[in-house]
Amino acid sequence: MASQVCAAIDVGSYEIAMKIYEIGSKKGIRELDHVRVGVDLGSESYATGRLSANRVSEIIRILREFDREMKTWGVTVVRACGTSALRESENVDMILERIEKSTGIKIELLSNSEQRFLDYKATALKSDLFEKIISKPSAIVDIGGGSIQISLFDDDRLVTTQNLKLGVLRIHEMLQTLGAGTLRYGALVAELVGAQLSVFSRMYLSDRRIKNVILVDDYVSPLMQNPRILTDSGFLVEGGDVPDKGHVSAAGFIHFIDHVHDESRGKNAEKLGVSYENLPLVYISGLIIKCIAKEMGAEDLWAPGVTLCDGIAWEYAEKKGALGKHHDFEKDIIASAYNISTRFRGNKKRSELIGDLAVRIFDAMKPVHGLDERERLLLRIAAILHDCGKYISMINLGETSYSIIMGSEIIGLSHRERQTVAAAVRYIYTKVPPPDSLDRVVEQFDDRMRLTLIKLTAMLRVATGLDRSHLKKFKKAVFTLEGDELYITANTIEDTTLESGLFDDRAGFFEEVFGVRPIIRRKDAK
Length: 526
What we know:
Blueprint: E1 4-11, E2 15-24, E3 28-38, H1 42-48, H2 53-73, E4 77-82, H3 84-87, H4 92-103, E5 107-109, H5 112-126, H6 129-134, E6 138-143, E7 148-154, E8 157-164, H7 168-178, H8 185-204, E9 212-216, H9 220-224, H10 227-232, E10 247-249, H11 250-260, H12 265-272, H13 279-296, E11 300-302, H14 308-319, H15 329-343, H16 348-364, H17 366-369, H18 373-384, H19 397-406, H20 415-429, H21 447-465, E12 478-482, E13 485-491, H22 497-501, H23 504-514, E14 517-523
Parallel strand pairs: 1-4, 4-5, 6-9, 9-11, 13-14
Antiparallel strand pairs: 1-2, 2-3, 6-7, 7-8, 10-11, 12-13
Helix pairs in contact: 1-7, 2-4, 5-14, 7-13, 8-13, 11-13, 15-18, 16-18, 16-21, 18-20, 18-21, 19-20, 20-21, 21-23
């Protein structure tokens, strides 16, 4: 691709940041400018559930300044994203409309999983160290203003990702409400974080010890990127080696954070190069990291120094083909779905079969369905999770599966995509409501989402119908589209009477959706 000047804007909980990049296929990504303006949106949003008119005016003023800066650089592509402070505001729709009308900048509201996935992408794509580090048991700890995301990796594989609603600003607000002085922060943060960490630990750490913790945050990470602070501010245990940029031992970090409160707030602010007002937030972020590192028994910490703006830019570059070979993120999304299925005792081998059948139907029907590769991924994820509700109820399988999927974190999927997956699984077992009838599951779907949902459901119904007996009779089936018929040729010596006899209802719905009739044929395997 020809070089473009692009801007990424993060409307965060405690600051609004913009980075400007030059992106091209020859040079990759080059950062040109970085502007940060502190504005405390999170404290108000988390405490009251709303943002005041004055706060919105601050956002508008800052974005107008950013717009002037973008014009000086000749920016042609802009993506602005809002995170938890906006996401949790009850009046967010009015806020976004007012901002767009006043500035011309449209803010995209990210779900938690989308936000963390962009942070994760920046971490994976920005440094060659990532693949080496996650080859050993590792955790990405992404600390925001409203929550903490912990993603576990083992042998290059995503094991789980979980969200704890205990971000830096949220904890700070709690401590201020309690009237706690900074000398009590250590004990109180340990209690707040420890309670949730103990549950996480019992569920996911009982059989593994985490060697590396990868940090993504806005307060401690910049300190660890500064060689002077690493060597001069107590990060090192006596006799320890001078660490590489962004790297420190867990013991060295704990040594540092345990001694931060021993000196005056003013002296610490000067030593660490942070503002006096932000020092409590730096301390809280450090205490959170200390608690997590101790709970996991981590040996090393690495702060790659990435931001959400980096994730926005790297994703754009990835889509435009400006990056070479890189980490397989789709594999991580699929692994996240398999982890949910395993947690609820899903049948992995059958899920793999249903997923394989579903995507082969998808591929055979490409001339007809008009769906894209992203929707193919959603179909596969729905197939993986098609039976997760059996853990709760074998009778109300559609309802329980829907509730599990909507209550789970699938890193990399937007809220709308997760809704689509959950609804598709629900309607495998439940009648899809007609267009003129509202249903609580699809009442917020637009026409495009609804049509996509119906198409995915039709393919899932056929795929699951081909394995009614759970005997994998159609494992080697061949799917051939000929005119208005989809021939499904079962290459097997098994009796397919059950599948053929109970196929009419599923075939009828498929034909209603696509105008193509699926027909089962049997070819004896040799």
